[in-house]
Amino acid sequence: MSDLPTPDTAALALSARLADRIRAAIAAAGGRLGFDAYMQRALYEPGLGYYANGLRKFGEEGDFTTAPERSPLFARALARQVAQVLSAVPDGEVLEFGPGSGALAAELLAELDTLGCPPRRYLMLELSAELQQRQRAAIARRVPHLAERVAWLAQLPERFSGVVIANEVLDAMPVRRFRVVDGGITELYVTTAGEGMELVNGPPQDELLAARVVSLDLPTGYESEVNFAAEAWVSTLCERLQRGLLLLIDYGYAQAEYYHPQRHTGTLQCHYRQHAHADALLWPGLQDITAHVDFTAMAQAGCAVGATLAGFASQAQFLINCGLPQLLEAIDPADPAYMDLALQARQLLLPQAMGEAFKVLALTRGLHAGDGLIGFASGDRRHRL
Fold first, then answer.
1. What is the DSSP secondary structure assignment for residue 144, as one 8-state letter?
2. Residue 46 domain-assigned?
3. Model-level pTM greater than 0.90?
4. How far is CA 180 from CA 202, 218, 264, 266, in A?
5. In the chain, what is the straight-line distance between the N-terminal and C-terminal CA atoms, in Å?
6. Is residue 2 part of a domain?
7. What is the pLDDT of residues 87-117, one digit of tens each?
8. Contacts with 191 (C-beta within 8 Å, 6 or more apart), sequence order
9. DSSP 165-224
10. What's the structural domain count of the chain?
11. pLDDT at 128
12. Is residue 244 predicted with pLDDT exceeding 90?
């Protein structure tokens, strides 16, 4: 695509190796892969996939910037919600998925320490050795006195109590893509086309997708995604959560908005060097591939295994409830950092920035029903799910 920066020679060579591996998988599968299988390989193929190859992803020099990297105010406000739950869960821990650069972990630990309730352990599930190094460095810089409380996991714990945080995790889980046609449903597949790859339609891989799409009652020609992988992940986490809170923060919608008639081409989007585009087959391994989150489906997945839906709000409302405006007001306007922090707060809160696009979903287990979560004290939208 002409408006995108051109990758360097080494990056293109890495992408070519991954493309060869994907084409081999297509051949082994009989000529086509479900889009979810392609997305899984493009993002997570060992050593080559986008999240596994060691290339820089986060921050202004990467492909996208997450809320914790935009401003320390995000973590400082979030700490109020985490502290509330930890105070109700003896020996509770914090478990963060997809910790990225470590910015959220470092600032959250610092603020929890300031509040007088650092967790017994702060666990990070991270498979990338390169990202683990960056996370260790961030912890060492910001909270060296708490470094001994931090540990890294390679898989989900069997049991957990405390607060689980997944910030911009669900959007990168492989989705299945579909199209409604006269007489039924087709699924999107990836196949080879000469030396490249292309998207084709075919019968659904199973009845699960067809049944879900039929239940949505969408018009002919409608294209979109279903994220069964994310639903299964949420279910598993809720089953293993003994007592505490699962907090899902991501861009997305309630189901009625997700499958709105105006959103008839779906929500899939790719990110490369701060540029967004729609070609998921371009440069596999070099670009992020994401889809918005259907928060209704995530809530249903958690509640189906016994979790309680405890809150759903915009990111802006959640952060306001957690005291972000007061955190900013407490800074002296004469402080050289004040203006930057004020601009960062606008990015986190304004509807046209991150404030409305991002939502926060809370699922709990074993918490007293009367202990309402402070992050949802006002503007709770559970009724929209």
1. G
2. yes
3. yes
4. 11, 7, 10, 12
5. 37
6. no
7. 999 999 999 998 989 999 999 999 999 999 9
8. 26, 31, 32, 33, 197, 198, 199, 200
9. EEES-GGGS--EEEEEETTEEEEEEEEEETTEEEEEEE--SSHHHHHHHHHHTPPTT-EE
10. 1
11. 82
12. yes
